[in-house]
């Protein structure tokens, strides 16, 4: 993993914007164009694009706007490694990470800079997607709008970090040890894990949902399931189990209600299975009661969806939300198994070394 040479940082600039990109030739004209439209004076920030072994014209497009384009050789090593490489060459006092498929609003960079200037006890900050995702389809709209809703509802101090549109002091980033590129060689929870280490340093992290960007990603149902299960849920559960000795409250901002809803959906599935196996259909009443409880608990979210896109859309998100909780349950079980077999074995190996 690269290590940022702190002694070489001159902090001549307020911000260094780092964009990791892999086969992003179709996205960069929009996302870099959005950065170019920033209302923060151009002489106060630099743009670094890290081309993570792309097979398209990513680097050539990036060179039109970026002061520095880093070309990484194959194989692709993931956004964690790419961001670290960009940070290693950054000159700014603050690092701003923006994903290649995010078009930041014109005031985003200025808001990050002003926040970190004004509040020296804040080590990192992150924003949110806006409520205008361009990708059509229920899954894409649901996924991107949900992100906006959750971040808006969670404004304030946070226990985690988000690198899709997030900023961190260069000194804090170095002290925390940068992204763990070895553990996360593809897009997973590398930013969440980094946030834990930043908080462990005693640094504040704040969520500012007024700092926004438009997410260009087009989601599919298969992609959503794969992400929630393999790239979010299971590694998140493993991280929770590894950090279970942490005495701070709810290390990764997992709300108690979400755990309850996950358990209720699991109970509903179990009750439905019993009903089918035994032919005792009264179990379906129990399953329905669990589902109704989860829907009721998410009523505020569905009402918000209805205000944004209408009731037809809101109703279509109900099964997607149930699927989310079901995947949470599967992730918890798979994460526990992986932690027991893999993490436990690794710990025993280290202890015996």
Task: Describe the overall structure.
- The protein has about 350 residues and is an alpha/beta fold.
- The chain has two domains: about 10-220, Spore Coat Polysaccharide Biosynthesis Protein SpsA, Chain A; about 255-350, no CATH class.
- The protein contains twelve helices and nine strands.
- Strands 1, 2, 3, 4, 5, 6, 7, 8 and 9 form a nine-stranded mixed β-sheet that branches.
- α9 runs antiparallel to α10, α9 (about 255-280) packs across α12 and α11 (about 300-310) packs across α12 (about 310-350).
- The longest helix is centred in the C-terminal third of the chain and has 42 residues, at about 310-350.
Structure in a nutshell:
The chain is of the alpha/beta class and 353 residues long. The chain folds into two domains: 12-219, Spore Coat Polysaccharide Biosynthesis Protein SpsA, Chain A (Alpha-Beta Complex), CATH 3.90.550; 256-352, no CATH class. It has helices spanning 28-36, 58-62, 79-89, 108-118, 138-153, 170-176, 190-200, 221-242, 256-278, 282-297, 299-309, 311-352; strands at 13-21, 45-52, 68-72, 92-98, 102-104, 122-129, 156-158, 165-169, 204-215.
List keywords for this structure.
2 domains, disordered N terminus, Spore Coat Polysaccharide Biosynthesis Protein SpsA, Chain A, alpha/beta, nine-stranded mixed β-sheet, single chain, 353 residues
Question: How does the SSE layout of this entry go?
Answer:
Blueprint: E1 13-21, H1 28-36, E2 45-52, H2 58-62, E3 68-72, H3 79-89, E4 92-98, E5 102-104, H4 108-118, E6 122-129, H5 138-153, E7 156-158, E8 165-169, H6 170-176, H7 190-200, E9 204-215, H8 221-242, H9 256-278, H10 282-297, H11 299-309, H12 311-352
Parallel strand pairs: 1-2, 1-4, 2-3, 6-9
Antiparallel strand pairs: 4-8, 5-9, 6-8, 7-9
